[in-house]
Amino acid sequence: MPWYVIVIIVFVASVILSVFISLPLYLAIKTTHPIHLSREEVTSLWKEKRFASEYDKTLRKDITFTMDDGYIIHGDYMLYPGSKKFVICCHGYSVNREAELEYGLIFYRLGYNVVLFDERGHGDNAPFISTMGYLESKDLNQIIDQVKDKFGLDSSIGLHGVSMGAAVSLFVTKYRSDIEFIVEDCGYVNFKNVLTMQVNKGHLPGVIFAPLASFTSKLLYKFSFKDASIEPDLEKIDVPMLIIHGDIDESVPVKNAHILNEKLNCKHKMVLYHSKHANALTDYRLDYEKEVEDFLASLNSD
């Protein structure tokens, strides 16, 4: 074999090996270390969407939650006079509690106390990796306990989540059965499938690189992307749920909503025409608010 053929083979093999090492490493690091927006930046984004609801800002009281590992999570709450009904709002990837304020105010106007919090590594919290709902759902489990300890064990707890926050709301059902309801907005049931789709969109074989990225994450952070999944446990969920999803969501496909509905046979589901990821409230505000109100009313009538 001529020497130059050997050189070409070695070069091509080196390039392929480099891709198989560097791309999974890039995906693992990029996924677990998102670019975080400040609370001010998120508030500004809502204003750009012409969302800036007037409310009494003195209603928001600061609160912190201390996790079992000592990590401190920052948040705030709004108490509705005389109510024992709470909704805990879970934000999406890279944003913070300000992204959930507009949703929280819907519930507040309907007589609910509202708890907003920053997930690990987000908002006012100390730096930490994102685990796409795995550790975050364990945190939420402890937050629910601490809300009940502070405001009364007779407090009822519902959840609202958008994107990763919706996944967090789903995942926490692995740990408890006392959740009154979940409003699940464009969440995923299996993060590795979402990553596979995103890699495919880059014209690379996601079926190969997503598992490699998951393995790399496990080596680096002791967290596998397979951990961020509720899919094997879906049929165990026994919580009233409102499913909301845009039909042209390119970040988390609407297929996730269909999987949820198929497994849980939800009575309340809203698939919104020509709505992108996490844009449901922006695109269909009145419909969104009405659907939430009707859903909550149905709980009281059952």
Describe this structure in words.
- With 302 residues, the protein is an alpha/beta fold.
- The chain contains 10 helices and 8 strands.
- Strands 1-2-4-3-5-6-7-8 form an 8-stranded mixed sheet, with helices on both faces.
- Strand 1 and strand 2 form a beta hairpin.
- Helix 6 crosses helix 7.
- The longest helix has 30 residues, at 3-32.
- The protein is globular and about 85 Å long.
- The termini are far apart.
Contiguous helical run count: 10
CATH superfamily of the largest domain: Alpha/Beta hydrolase fold, catalytic domain
Strand content: 15-25%
The total tally of domains equals: 2
Q: What best-fitting shape do the alpha-carbon axes yield? A: globular
What features would you highlight for this structure?
single chain, 302 residues, alpha/beta, Rossmann fold, eight-stranded mixed beta sheet
What would you say about this model in short?
By secondary structure, this protein is of the alpha/beta class.
Q: What are the SSEs and their pairings?
A:
Layout: H1 3-32, H2 39-48, E1 61-66, E2 72-78, E3 85-90, H3 101-109, E4 113-117, H4 134-151, E5 156-162, H5 164-171, E6 179-185, H6 191-201, H7 206-221, E7 241-246, H8 255-264, E8 268-272, H9 280-283, H10 285-301
Helix pairs in contact: 1-7, 4-5, 6-7
